[in-house]
Each structure stands twice: as structure tokens, then as C-alpha cells.
């Protein structure tokens, strides 16, 4: 039976754990499918990798070129001489050629080809500035050659003799296949003046090259600001380079070289394309030597040369290549699962009904968080195992411990964010759409925005740090680093990320951000959860407690208005208020529920005025009694119940349950409370028995007491027969669900029970059985019951209150109410239409104060005051009528509770209209 000791933290946690375990067993295949999703996705990557190997890695364009020696191409010869420029990089170079260092000649947009050939206009410019204008002007004149092409030099000897040769093609990331040499583009020699014949051809290796003269100017600028203006505000494409000589003099050579860095391009393995800077250094060095030693003094910079290498092939790992966006989506797919689960419990009010039956926030958070963490951990472990087993280098090349720690702290952050975000949604559909927008939006923004900014060396690193505060970008950054290290390991045949790479890779800041955000998100989520469950303003903590809320001010105005109302408060209601006031001064343990001037006002919305749902209710319900609340739809009965069970906070007034204030001690109130809400709040996959076991454990029932209480509850509501108790509640009929809800509210013998229309949808037999159960339960509980059934109210309730327009209009037991508001008989008589007046005259003669209340097609009803009319006189009236005309039917009825209800409701509503 009832256990006066509330369930402990561990007992409630155990109850929720066992309920969740049972629930998850019923949904085991959903969990299995969730955990093996990484396997499907990893297999998809394997197929993509196989397709990529066939079409890209093993294609002829991505290996050294070959020439067939027979018609069937069974014999072939391969090498650089048979390769296209794109194939040359893959060829073996046992003896790499010596290649001339070149300048990067900018492409011009304003000059024509004829101008380029004739030298009639300068096409390229070198800018010089510094602290010493005289020295700077001299060095500026020494930068460019004034001599024509040497007549007797050919081939690479000619190219090496001139220090200012360049090309308009961009450099590659290797000199094996320099586009300046291995292409049809001409080379250019920059001179101060070009003649008509300033073009010639020569051979270098197997390539025939043409060298053209291009006119250049070396111009002095007064300071670096003018250099910047010339480069960035003018036609900067034509500037080869700029030199800031700073404090250079005869004893000190100090120079800064400015060049076009847009030729740099970040590759996936983080190697930069070459930029042709060495020749720029050589130009200014030679100009300085000429300044010191005179004409003809130069440093020879004859060639550049790569290291020898073997033939290679493209080895692109597609999983590492698309890893950041792909695995961002994979890991974030857990977020919609968690968010929809939390919002589902909120939408179906399963969370609040558990709380009403004693489940505290601590056990709920611990078990729910542990469940999400277990699912997420299994998901991540499966991802790592499956990915490694099928050979994805993204997982195999990087240290497993780094990966697991990173994923573990991120899934904790993701769980905390799911709890936090769930407070902003009330519908599963909306939360699901928002969650998937977050998932796919994060991946796309990470690839097309965040990654671009990471790879841009000019973008401030501090802003990268700020962007990583967005949890999706911190995840993307970590996966991006894993991807880069895996790519480098694959290309260089080395291992990926190790712990020694942790600090230099950016992972240290990512870990720090995730851990701090995890902590903050968890605190914020817990706060918002408490706010949403208590129906408080999220900013109420920061508001001045002495300042009255708008709704409270509304109540004050309404109270002032009620003082000048014409209506006088009914005596019974006034007596109840006085009794409550006396109890507030001298508390009594006899009364389990006490409400003192309780008000509930819903604030104005969409231009509508505030709605007063409960207006100054004072009520006291003792233990062992059932109080019935009657009233028309919209009278405020459900709003009162919602206030008492903690769904909404009262606007003003106070209420106490077992001496505990519902505004400050609701968590303690829940431990001794049972609730049967207006709508059934059940888990469709759990059986009736499993529901009762869960709620019984929350009431601190254990062992044989628990099993006995569950069995008795099932039998009492007729759910024990024919295996119904072990059938999922989703298969129950509406009446069976209603009976189960009543059984849940009564299990554990709670001290206070609220029932909102408990017999709705039941057949007469089940309804009578349910009434018997409730009547037996009220012996040790205080019950507040709302109903529209007068028969139910009369059978169950010791006290009744009729509630109209938010006010308690009358209170008393059913017999008192019928005596007070029903002092009349109802006489019904049916005759032909032409005798209606005769019937009315006979009734008026017998009772002058009789009142006709109904009239249609010969049938009339009259209210006849009891004090002036005896039952024997009724028979006399009927006999007189029968002697004069035909009477088809007649009847006499005493006042019913329904008559009382209708009379009080109509009278009150009519008064409110005219007042």
C-alpha cells in the first residue's frame, strides 16, 4: 500500500533506467539501424574510392605517358618524351634537367600584341622605394638590362646569360614540368628598350622556345604608401615586383621584396605552388653589386634543379579528400535523432507527466544523458571500426586515441546542445526540419566558406578562432586536420596525425573550445529546462522581484473592479473563503489541498485582451474526500488543474498541497501526487503492466509490494484479463487507455490526486467499475475531479463546486445544492396543440407561481415551487385534464443536479452579460 517515504534519487533513476531499457528493447532494431549507419556510409566510400581509382587514379592522364611499339600495345615505351605536360610529373627523373630560373611576367589587359612585339610602349614595371633616394635611383637603373640579345649565343647558354627572362605562365608545385619551359608559351626578356628584331628562337632539351623582348621600366617612388597605391589602386597586373630598400647603404644591404602572391595556391596536402621569387632576389642583388663594384659585376644564377625521383602514380584517397564534409554530416546525423526524441517527450507531455508522478530533474537528466552518450559512443566506435576494417586511410593513418578523444568530447557537446535547443521547440516536425538544416548547412558552409578561410594565409587567425566557436565549425576543423594529415600520409607514405602534432595542427584550440562549450551548454540547457518546466520567463532571474508583472497588475485592476460589482458573493462561497483565511492563520493537517485567492490570467496575445481563467478561487479539500468541479466548457476547470499540477504558475494567490507551496516546493509535492490528465499520456510501445511498474517504482514501491500493487491496479480497472496487461498501449482502445491513465494516477496510494474528466469515452459498465475504484481510493487520498457527468459527480463527490467564467459560483454536497437551487418540481404534459392553453390554465390554477420552461408541439414543461404544491395535487390536475381532453403523456420529476447546474450557469452568464 502507500509508502510515506518518497523515492530516493537512485530509486527514481533506476525506475527511469528500467523503463527506458524496456522501451529501447521494443525499438531494438531502430537502435541497431542507427549504429550500423556508419557501416553503410563507409561501404559507400569504398565504392566511390573504387570508381575514383578506375577513372582517376589509374587513368592515363595521371601516370607517366607511354607510346605503343606494336598494334596491340603489348610492348610500349614510357618516359617524359611521350608525356603530356600533365603526365610529366609522374615520370621517373633519374637525371633531372637543369632549368633556367624565370621571372613571373604579369599578364596585361591594356596593351596589344603589336605593342608587345615592337616595344612601342612599356608593358611591365618594377617599382623601387627606400630611405635613400640617390642610392635607390642608381639601383633602379641597374635592375634592367640595356643590351640587346647576344648574337652568337644559342640555346640554354643564351638563357643563362640573361638574368631577366620570364614567362606569363604560372609555376607548378614542381620544376619537373615547369610550364614556362614545357609549353608553347614564349619566354620574354625584359629590357629597357626593344627593337623591331627583338625576337629569336632556340632549342632547350626537346622543346623549341621563342624568346621575345618586352619593354620594362624601373620607377622610383617616394615611400611604400605610393608603392601600395600603384599596386592596388592602379593597373597592378603590370607590376612585376616592387623593392623597398629601407636603410640600404654601402655597408648595409636591407631590402623587402613585394610580389603578386595570388599565384600561390593551397593544395590538399598543404604544399604551395612555387612562386618565381629567386630571380627577383637575384636581380636586386646584381643591381647592388653593380652599385658597389661597377658594371659587369654579377652573381651567376644559372639554373634550378629538382632531386632525382622514381616514376609515381596519383594516389588520391577519396575518403580523406571529401572527409571533412562527409564525416561532418555523418557525425551530425546523431543530432536530429536526439533532438526529436527530446521534443517528442515534450510535445506528448511525457516528460511532465513523469515529473508529476515524482521523477525529479536529476534522475531524468542522468539517465537520458547516459542513454544518448551510450548510443553516440557506440555510433562513433562503429564508425572508426568499420572505416578502419575496410581500409579507409582517414581512420587508419591518424592516431586512434586522438580520434576517439576528439569524437568523445564532441558528442558530449552535441548532446548538451540537443538538450539546450529542445527547449526552443514544441513540435517534432519543426525540430526535425531545423535539425537537418543545421546538419547539411554546417557541412556546406564548412566546405565552401570555412575551409576556404582556413586555407587563406591572409585571413586573420583570430577570426578563425571566433568562427570555431560555432560547434559545427569546430567539428569541421578537427575533421579537416585529420583529412590533411591522412592525405599527407598517403602521398608521402608516412603516418598521419600523432600526439606530437597536436599543438601545431590547430587541434589544441579546437579541443579547448569544445570542452569549454560543453560545460557552458550543459549549464544553459539545465537552466532553460527548469525555466520551461516551471513556465517562468527565461529572464526572470535578472528581473527586479519587487516589480509586479503585467498579469499581476491586471489581477489588481480586476479585483478593484469586482469590489464595485453589483453581484453579491454567495454565502456558501463566502464561508469557504473565510474557512481558508482562518486556515492560513492556523494551519491544519486535516486539509490536503488549500487554495487561497488563487488567480490565473493568460496574457494578451494577437491584440486580444487578457483572459482570466481562474478568478480568486479559495478552496479547502480534506483528506478522504473527493471534490468535484462542474462547469461549462471554457469555465477554467482545466486551467485550475494545470495550475495545481505545476504546468502553469498562478498569477497571484497561493496554494498548498500537504502544507507545501506549489510555487516553491512543487518538486516535493510531486512525490505524493497522482494525475489523470484530460488526454492520455502514454508510451505506445510499452504495455499497461510496464507503465504501472514504472510509476510504481517512482512511488517507492519495491519487490513483492510493487508486483502486488500493479496486479491489483490492473484488476481494478479491468485490464488484467486476456493478456491485455501485456499488450502495447498503442493497441488499446480509447476506453482502455483512459482506464490505464486512472490506474497510473492511483498507484502507490498518493496523498493527492487530480482527475480531469476520468470517465470520458467509457461504456456504462466500465464507467461504473471505474467509479467504484475511485471511490475506494478516496479513503486515503484527497481527490479533485472535473467532469461533465452529473451522475458521476453525484456518485463520487462529497463536495461539489460549480465553476463559471473563472469563478466558483456555489459549493456544497449534491443534496445541499439541489435543496438550495432546486426547490421545485418539473411537470411535463403532452396533449394536442389546441389544448395547450387549457393545460397552462389548469397548472396556473393549481400553482400561481408555476413557470413554463419548455414548449414544443403540444409538449409543455412547468417548474412548480415545492412549497405551494403537493404531489397529490398533481394527480388532481392530471385527472381534470383527462376529463376535459385527451392527455397523451405526463410526468413529474424532482430537481436533478443537472437542473441545478444549468440554472446556476445560465444565471451567472446572464449576470455577466448585463453587469
Automatic annotation (TrEMBL):
<feature type="transmembrane region" description="Helical">
    <location>
        <begin position="402"/>
        <end position="421"/>
    </location>
</feature>
<feature type="transmembrane region" description="Helical">
    <location>
        <begin position="321"/>
        <end position="344"/>
    </location>
</feature>
<keyword id="KW-1133">Transmembrane helix</keyword>
<dbReference type="Pfam" id="PF24526">
    <property type="entry name" value="ABCA12_C"/>
</dbReference>
<keyword id="KW-0472">Membrane</keyword>
<feature type="transmembrane region" description="Helical">
    <location>
        <begin position="364"/>
        <end position="390"/>
    </location>
</feature>
<feature type="transmembrane region" description="Helical">
    <location>
        <begin position="34"/>
        <end position="52"/>
    </location>
</feature>
<feature type="transmembrane region" description="Helical">
    <location>
        <begin position="433"/>
        <end position="454"/>
    </location>
</feature>
<keyword id="KW-0547">Nucleotide-binding</keyword>
<protein>
    <recommendedName>
        <fullName>ABC transporter domain-containing protein</fullName>
    </recommendedName>
</protein>
<dbReference type="InterPro" id="IPR017871">
    <property type="entry name" value="ABC_transporter-like_CS"/>
</dbReference>
<keyword id="KW-0812">Transmembrane</keyword>
<dbReference type="Pfam" id="PF12698">
    <property type="entry name" value="ABC2_membrane_3"/>
</dbReference>
<dbReference type="GO" id="GO:0005524">
    <property type="term" value="F:ATP binding"/>
</dbReference>
<comment type="similarity">
    <text>Belongs to the ABC transporter superfamily. ABCA family. CPR flippase (TC 3.A.1.211) subfamily.</text>
</comment>
<dbReference type="InterPro" id="IPR003439">
    <property type="entry name" value="ABC_transporter-like_ATP-bd"/>
</dbReference>
<keyword id="KW-0067">ATP-binding</keyword>
<dbReference type="GO" id="GO:0016020">
    <property type="term" value="C:membrane"/>
</dbReference>
<dbReference type="Pfam" id="PF00005">
    <property type="entry name" value="ABC_tran"/>
</dbReference>
<dbReference type="InterPro" id="IPR026082">
    <property type="entry name" value="ABCA"/>
</dbReference>
<dbReference type="InterPro" id="IPR027417">
    <property type="entry name" value="P-loop_NTPase"/>
</dbReference>
<feature type="domain" description="ABC transporter">
    <location>
        <begin position="593"/>
        <end position="830"/>
    </location>
</feature>
<dbReference type="InterPro" id="IPR003593">
    <property type="entry name" value="AAA+_ATPase"/>
</dbReference>
<dbReference type="GO" id="GO:0140359">
    <property type="term" value="F:ABC-type transporter activity"/>
</dbReference>
<dbReference type="GO" id="GO:0005319">
    <property type="term" value="F:lipid transporter activity"/>
</dbReference>
<dbReference type="InterPro" id="IPR013525">
    <property type="entry name" value="ABC2_TM"/>
</dbReference>
<dbReference type="GO" id="GO:0016887">
    <property type="term" value="F:ATP hydrolysis activity"/>
</dbReference>
Amino acid at each position: 500500500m502507500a509508502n510515506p517515504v518518497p523515492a530516493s534519487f537512485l530509486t527514481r533513476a533506476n525506475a527511469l533506467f528500467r523503463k527506458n531499457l524496456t522501451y529501447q528493447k521494443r525499438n531494438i532494431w531502430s537502435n541497431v539501424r542507427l549504429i550500423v549507419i556508419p557501416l553503410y556510409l563507409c561501404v559507400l566510400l569504398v565504392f566511390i574510392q573504387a570508381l575514383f581509382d578506375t577513372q582517376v587514379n589509374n587513368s592515363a592522364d595521371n601516370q607517366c605517358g607511354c607510346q605503343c611499339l606494336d598494334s596491340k600495345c603489348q610492348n610500349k615505351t614510357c618516359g617524359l618524351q611521350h608525356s603530356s605536360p600533365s603526365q610529366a610529373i609522374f615520370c621517373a627523373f633519374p637525371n633531372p634537367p637543369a632549368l633556367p630560373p624565370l621571372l613571373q611576367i604579369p599578364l596585361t589587359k591594356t596593351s596589344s600584341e603589336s605593342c608587345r612585339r615592337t616595344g612601342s610602349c612599356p608593358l611591365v614595371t618594377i617599382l623601387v622605394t627606400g630611405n635613400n633616394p640617390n642610392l635607390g635611383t642608381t639601383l633602379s637603373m641597374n635592375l634592367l638590362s640595356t643590351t640587346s640579345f647576344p648574337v652568337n649565343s644559342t640555346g640554354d647558354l643564351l638563357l643563362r646569360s640573361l638574368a631577366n627572362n620570364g614567362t606569363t605562365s604560372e609555376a607548378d608545385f614542381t620544376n619537373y614540368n615547369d610550364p614556362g619551359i614545357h609549353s608553347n608559351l614564349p619566354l620574354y626578356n625584359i629590357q629597357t628598350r626593344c627593337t623591331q628584331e627583338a625576337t629569336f628562337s632556340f632549342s632547350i632539351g626537346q622543346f623549341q622556345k621563342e624568346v621575345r623582348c618586352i619593354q620594362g621600366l624601373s620607377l622610383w617612388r617616394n615611400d611604400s604608401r605610393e608603392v601600395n597605391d600603384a599596386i592596388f589602386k592602379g593597373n597592378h597586373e603590370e607590376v612585376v615586383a616592387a623593392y623597398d630598400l629601407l636603410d640600404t647603404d654601402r655597408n648595409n644591404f636591407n631590402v623587402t621584396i613585394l610580389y603578386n602572391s595570388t599565384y600561390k595556391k593551397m593544395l590538399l596536402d598543404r604544399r604551395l605552388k612555387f612562386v618565381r621569387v629567386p630571380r627577383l632576389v637575384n636581380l636586386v642583388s646584381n643591381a647592388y653589386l653593380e652599385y658597389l663594384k661597377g658594371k659587369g659585376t654579377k652573381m651567376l644564377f644559372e639554373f634550378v634543379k629538382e632531386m632525382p625521383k622514381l616514376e609515381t602514380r596519383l594516389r588520391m584517397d577519396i575518403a580523406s579528400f571529401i572527409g571533412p564534409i562527409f564525416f561532418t554530416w555523418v557525425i551530425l546525423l546523431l543530432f536530429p535523432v536526439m533532438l526529436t526524441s527530446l521534443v517528442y517527450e515534450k510535445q506528448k507531455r511525457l516528460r511532465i507527466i513523469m515529473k508529476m508522478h515524482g521523477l525529479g530533474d536529476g534522475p531524468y537528466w542522468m539517465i537520458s544523458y547516459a542513454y544518448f552518450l551510450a548510443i553516440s559512443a557506440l555510433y562513433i566506435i562503429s564508425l572508426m571500426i568499420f572505416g578502419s576494417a575496410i581500409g579507409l586511410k582517414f581512420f587508419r593513418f591518424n592516431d586512434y586515441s586522438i580520434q576517439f578523444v576528439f569524437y568523445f568530447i564532441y558528442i558530449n557537446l552535441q548532446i548538451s546542445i540537443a538538450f539546450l535547443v529542445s527547449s526552443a521547440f514544441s513540435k517534432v516536425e519543426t525540430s526535425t526540419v531545423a535539425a537537418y538544416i543545421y546538419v547539411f548547412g554546417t557541412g556546406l558552409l564548412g566546405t565552401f566558406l570555412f575551409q576556404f578561410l582556413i586555407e587563406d594565409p591572409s585571413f586573420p587567425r583570430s577570426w578563425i578562432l571566433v568562427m570555431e566557436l560555432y560547434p559545427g565549425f569546430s567539428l569541421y576543423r578537427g575533421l579537416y586536420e585529420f583529412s590533411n594529415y591522412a592525405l599527407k600520409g598517403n602521398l608521402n607514405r608516412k603516418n598521419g596525425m600523432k600526439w606530437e602534432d597536436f599543438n601545431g595542427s590547430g587541434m589544441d584550440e579546437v579541443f579547448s573550445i569544445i570542452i569549454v562549450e560543453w560545460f557552458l551548454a550543459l549549464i544553459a540547457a539545465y537552466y532553460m529546462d527548469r525555466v520551461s518546466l516551471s513556465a517562468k520567463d527565461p529572464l526572470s532571474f535578472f528581473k527586479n522581484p519587487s516589480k509586479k508583472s503585467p498579469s499581476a497588475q491586471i489581477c489588481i485592476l480586476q479585483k478593484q473592479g469586482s469590489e464595485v460589482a453589483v453581484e453579491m458573493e454567495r454565502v456558501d462561497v463566502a464561508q469557504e473563503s473565510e474557512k481558508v483565511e482562518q486556515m492560513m492563520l492556523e494551519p491544519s493537517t486535516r486539509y490536503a489541498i488549500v487554495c487561497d485567492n488563487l488567480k490565473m490570467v493568460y496574457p494578451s496575445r494577437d491584440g486580444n485582451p487578457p483572459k482570466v481563467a481562474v478568478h480568486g478561487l479559495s478552496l479547502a479539500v480534506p483528506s478522504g474526500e473527493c471534490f468535484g468541479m462542474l462547469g461549462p466548457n471554457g469555465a477554467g476547470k482545466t486551467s485550475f488543474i494545470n495550475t495545481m499540477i505545476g504546468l502553469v504558475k498562478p498569477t497571484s494567490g497561493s496554494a498548498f498541497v500537504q502544507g507545501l507551496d506549489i510555487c516553491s516546493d512543487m518538486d516535493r509535492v510531486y512525490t505524493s501526487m497522482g494525475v489523470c490528465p484530460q488526454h492520455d499520456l502514454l508510451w505506445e510501445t510499452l504495455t499497461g503492466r510496464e507503465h504501472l511498474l514504472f510509476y510504481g517504482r517512482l512511488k517507492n514501491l519495491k519487490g513483492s509490494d510493487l508486483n502486488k500493487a500493479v496486479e491489483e491496479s490492473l484488476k481494478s480497472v479491468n485490464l488484467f484479463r486476456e493478456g491485455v496487461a501485456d499488450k502495447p498501449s498503442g493497441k488499446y482502445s480509447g476506453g482502455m487507455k483512459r482506464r490505464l491513465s486512472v490506474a497510473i494516477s492511483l498507484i502507490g496510494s498518493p496523498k493527492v490526486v487530480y482527475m480531469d474528466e476520468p470517465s470520458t469515452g467509457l461504456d456504462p459498465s466500465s464507467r461504473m467499475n471505474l467509479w467504484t475504484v475511485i471511490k475506494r481510493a478516496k479513503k486515503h487520498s484527497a481527490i479533485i475531479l472535473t467532469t461533465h457527468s452529473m451522475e458521476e459527480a453525484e456518485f463520487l463527490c462529497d463536495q461539489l463546486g460549480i465553476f463559471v467564467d473563472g469563478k466558483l459560483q456555489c459549493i456544497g454536497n449534491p443534496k445541499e445544492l439541489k435543496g438550495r437551487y432546486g426547490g421545485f418540481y418539473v411537470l411535463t404534459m403532452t396533449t394536442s396543440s389546441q389544448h395547450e392553453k387549457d393545460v397552462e390554465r389548469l397548472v396556473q390554477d393549481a400553482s400561481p407561481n408555476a413557470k413554463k420552461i419548455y414548449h414544443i408541439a403540444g409538449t409543455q414543461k412547468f417548474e412548480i415551487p415545492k412549497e405551494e404544491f403537493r404531489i397529490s395535487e398533481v394527480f388532481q390536475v392530471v385527472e381534470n385534464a383527462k376529463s376535459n381532453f385527451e392527455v397523451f403523456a405526463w410526468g413529474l420529476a424532482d430537481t436533478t443536479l443537472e437542473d441545478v447546474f444549468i440554472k446556476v450557469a445560465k444565471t451567472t452568464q446572464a449576470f455577466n452579460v448585463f453587469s
